[in-house]
Amino acid sequence: MLASVVDQLAELDDDALTERFRTVELELRRLIAEQAAIIAAGERRNIAAVDNHHSMKGWIKANANWSNRRAAQARKLATTIAALPEVGEALFAGLIGVDQADQLAEVATNRRVADQLPGSIDLLLEQAEQLSFEDARTCLRRWETLADIDGAYRDRELSHRQRTATVIELDGSLFAQATGGTAEVAAELQAIFNNPVEAEFRTDVAER
After folding, report:
1. Residues in CB range of 118: below 8 A, 6 or more apart
2. CA torsion, points 185, 190, 192, 194, in degrees to nearest 10?
3. Rounded to 5 degrees, what angle do the CA atoms 44, 87, 124 make?
């Protein structure tokens, strides 16, 4: 069946082939938007439990044989269009692509900024439609950083509070392990560790 489609495509000139590509792309966007709406509807009615699945991701994987990664991304998009119908409408109408919608979904599922997104979604959708994917992504990430201006600080403080370190003798050898802390502490400890490493390296070179 695909062979006949390939034969038909071979008969198209360049302009017609380009137009066919664009037509298929628009249809894919519409279908992905509809699929996300289906997942959102299934989530609302808890179809996973009714269908004897432990989670919505399990329901998706059972019906589509997707990877964990794709199933998780589909759920994010479904959650996003349920909370922000504008995103689903833009995707369904073909105004934005699937990649742009997925980028918006990543930000929309960031709990630290999700409540601020509705006030900026029109602008972000306009950027996603009019700018290149890379430029729109840059604008979106910049918005996320500004909306979560304290996020990096909170993460830094949490890492610092949860820092741990272990230094023990194990079977006649030294065992050392440390995690957490801050970037400044990490840089300082790296410098302390690298000094004797460099000294040992120079000693080995001299001996050779």
Report:
1. 84
2. -170
3. 140
